[in-house]
């Protein structure tokens, strides 16, 4: 856990909660997301500079509506309520929230009523383009509050009590559609919360090294290497902290990219001098996954098998008590779920772990977003081609093969994936997209090759652009690149006669298919 100034975000179920955290981190201020009913004890170790209350789907008058924790108002730290968070502040401080008949969804304009220096809207132009998403609104201000902005529909859009440093926004400053939203958040963080903006991923390293040493002591640690960025940075960070107390284990699950084992061996054992054990467990994983088609079941099985392999290898070593994993913040957020937000999917490093393990977890990256992980990797001196490699899911190709998983279908997907990535590299596009891969569908379609009828499987190509992997847009790749990839796949990969391109964004889709 970071020990510097921290903004605590209380999550009330908004689809944008994670985006609030991203925007704050971009301003070099550390933040963490907690459920709205978090116990005060969990926050005692934090140096809290302010609170942000997220939006959410509820009305403050709902019987089961989430409440405003008492410690938020008694802490004397500044508070910013967004949408439902604003309604909570008004409701609990003596104002009135109306079950509005005039709803505002999407782009809107508001008139700024107060641009005082040091306030939320200091120096901003009016009218202001914002993003609204609400039904209820604040009808009567609580005592001590003033109106800071009003929408063109006549609805209160922002309120504040500068003396107590408590503010509310009816709109969402964290989304790109609020054109000056980052400036508003900047004013809250630096003018109202008096943050210094000292958060940098690189300074995280010293604290993480100290925490790892404190947690591990003189005991041994195993780390599972997948060839992906997260596990690589985890291994390098733990190795810096405890040196030869770390043993990395590379498990060939039979679900990896082509030639993955050789690449991992060359990078970690030969180049970085990390102690490495390679285990071929492909038959074990394939046997456990035989006939399993449900994606959550696949993840749980793979998580179980991973842990069992690690435990078996650790048992052959002496003094091993910890397992280091490359869990990052989006994994934690999407896997957690709560009473006000849904779990999107269990992550291999989070929701896929068995309940009974003989090893304690070391997860030094679990508070970082992907771009922050890359910055840490660069600061640790990892090769740039590894640091900027596209993410690869912990369960491997199992979540890119829909339906049954067999060695034959894995080979088909591996071959198609290599071709797609090769075409992107040749076109100079690999580093311009955040993630690209192929997916194998459990359907067959009719085709014709050499005047003969075929009935073969379908490959879908997926490429996205994103800064943080919490939201993503499909990459608008040139037709010529897609055509070359499709032609090569159909002509060289046995059992495939059709290629499609996924043009879905996140949300509503996820980046991976399962």
Would you write up a description of this structure?
The protein has helices spanning 17-26, 40-43, 70-74, 84-92, 181-192, 201-216, 229-242, 260-271, 282-289, 295-315, 329-336, 370-379, 384-387, 407-426, 479-492; strands spanning 5-11, 30-35, 47-53, 79-82, 96-98, 104-112, 128-134, 137-140, 146-151, 156-161, 166-169, 220-225, 246-252, 276-280, 320-324, 360-362, 435-449, 452-465, 473-474, 496-501. Residues 337-354 have low confidence and may be disordered. The two termini are 30 Å apart. The strands form 4 sheets. It has a 9-stranded mixed sheet. By secondary structure, it is an alpha/beta fold.
Could you report the average pLDDT, rounded to the nearest whole number? 88
The percentage of residues in β strands lies in 15-25%
Instruction: Give me the CATH fold name of the largest domain.
Output: Rossmann fold
Report the strand count. Answer: 20
CATH homologous superfamily identity of the largest domain: Class I glutamine amidotransferase (GATase) domain
